[in-house]
Amino acid sequence: MPAETMIEYQTVEYQTPAPRVARIVLNRPERRNAQSIRLLYELNAAFDRAAQDDDIHVIILAANGKHFSAGHDLRDTDYRAALDDFPTVGTWCGFGCDGAEAQMALEKEVYLGFSERWRNIPKPTIAEVQGMVVAGGLMLVWPCDLIVASDDATFLDNTVAMGICGAEYFNHPWELGVRRAKEMLFASDPVTSQEAHRLGMVNHVVPRSELSSFTLSLAERIAEKPLFALKLTKEAVNSAQDNQGRVNAMQTSFALHQLCHSHNQQVFGIPLDPAFMQTSFGKAVKMDDTFGRRAAAE
Length: 298
Fold this sequence. Notes:
There is one protein chain. By secondary structure, the chain is α/β, with parallel strands linked by helices. It has a single domain, classed as 2-enoyl-CoA Hydratase, Chain A, domain 1. It is 40% helix and 16% strand. The chain has ten helices and eleven strands. The strands form three sheets. Strands 1-2-3-4-6-9 form a six-stranded mixed beta sheet, with helices on both faces. Strands 5-7-8 form a three-stranded mixed beta sheet. It is globular. The relative contact order is 0.14.
């Protein structure tokens, strides 16, 4: 792969809208910024670029189009080419193996692994969120240090309807509290930006027309601070949360997530409960059993 500063992005944009501020933008609006494997690797490369640039103090994550992200792209037909184009970032292996081993390897790399990696970037990150944030979309927003949401933003994890016990990056109890996290998952009900603000998941709710300007203004104020102090402050707060048991809980929930995939594969022949395929989210999707990944219906 070429050096990260030389990547020709296909699915994200890299901007520097103000001194000391980088802005990374998801750029698949025609797919509601659904996360293809290529998008995730390009996003990771963009985060690396901003993290390794000593002139950048704050990173904004935004998205083009009406919606921030519709989650994992269940019709990603380009994932094998993306895996060939990018080197593995984590240390896990077995991407070409049979059965659950390949499914777990891929999800440990690009879902749990990337989200944990982005959470621990040693610079403040701000998610600039509008419209829908569905399931895998939460795994882009929650690793960020701050969240600014438009007044029309909604947050949804509908994975239980798929026969899965929550998204791979299982931060729900820390974001929403235990009881609201359970309701979000059990009922697959959306959380509005206003409720998310009340619960402490979102820092600010602003009109859609002011979202980008408000977020940039916040980033500029933070970017004035000494970078080393910002790094260590983030390290301290993240450490406090991790000492509550977050890391162990995350590993347990990820293992249970894989068990759900394996159960569905044994019972139904696909990693998701086929009842989900009859919903509006699941129509026109089938499973590619050669790798356990999603492909477009013919």
